[in-house]
Amino acid sequence: MSSYRIALNFEDGVTRFIECKAGEKVLDAAFRNKINLPMDCSDGVCGTCKCQAESGAYDLGSDYIEDALSEDEASAGKVLTCQMIPSSDCVLSVPTSSRVCKTGQQKFAATVSSVEAHNDAAIVLHLDVDSTIPAPDFLPGQYVNIDVPGSGQSRSYSFSTAPGDRRIGFLIKKIPGGVMSGWLQTAAVGRSLNLTGPLGSFYLRNDDRPLLFLAGGTGLAPFLSMLEVLARHGSQQKIHLIYGVTRDLDLVLVDQIEAYAARLPNLTFSTVVAEENSTHPRKGWVTQHMPEDMLATGPFDAYLCGPPPMVDAVRHYFDSHRIKPQNFFYEKFTPNVALKESA
Hints:
This protein is α/β, with parallel strands linked by helices. The chain folds into three domains: about 5-95, Ubiquitin-like (UB roll); about 105-200, Translation factors (Elongation Factor Tu (Ef-tu), domain 3), CATH 2.40.30.10; about 210-340, Rossmann fold (3-Layer(aba) Sandwich). The chain contains seven helices and 19 strands. The protein is globular, with a radius of gyration of 21 Å. The model is unreliable at about 335-343 (pLDDT under 50).
């Protein structure tokens, strides 16, 4: 009997994954996994279990009333989990916190596999997840909190690898005096780290529209995860990635992007350096190098991950040029604290 992977994204940023058996309703599958999704009647009458289906195929049947779920709501992707029977993997946004549903963040351990410095700009960290526990499941673009040993602090980093891999990767900004940067300077292979997640509402949606990816600095990480998933699925979507940095030395992992361009026939990319004395062929800001053909020829989805000034500049550019992506998802970050947002 087949089963389907259902991602439940709670409004506090926590994501939990459950297995839904063929013919099983999502509400029942959640309860079986000890996650108490909102409900009252469980008969399609009250509407208490209403959620938003972000992606996936499913059947709602006809055993619910209009007051619980209107035709317009159903057309917009609203579902009643007490009636929803998936026929594929699905992603649901749950309009309440994980705490209310008596679940919480998942914690797991992984050991250091490699630490590779890229100039003074960034560090690539790879961790191995123990074979005795399930491989980490997340949506491409999401992040985890990693505890920094001996500091009592944690830092948030987006996965740069694909869901389900036992070797997980992160692209970390190298910060002088930074808690994680400092610890990584002497981190030994095999050292155990504690992680909490997945978290975040910034993740790749399952749509066929052209994709505009805008990455600032180490905000490249979630796009590497997205590109790996798209490549494995043999995506034919038109994708354009703009990777913007401050200095020439900040351009890292460009070889990985080139490798994805070889695997994805409709992927193009450009790199941009802001520093005035750079010798890079494209200088300035990402807003100065937008793909005009994509912006002018129909619906597209925009994804943006970078520091707050970059996010604000792109939002202003879209507004001032009356550019309206079909969907615009963004994530702001600062060197020490992740400000995870989407719109």
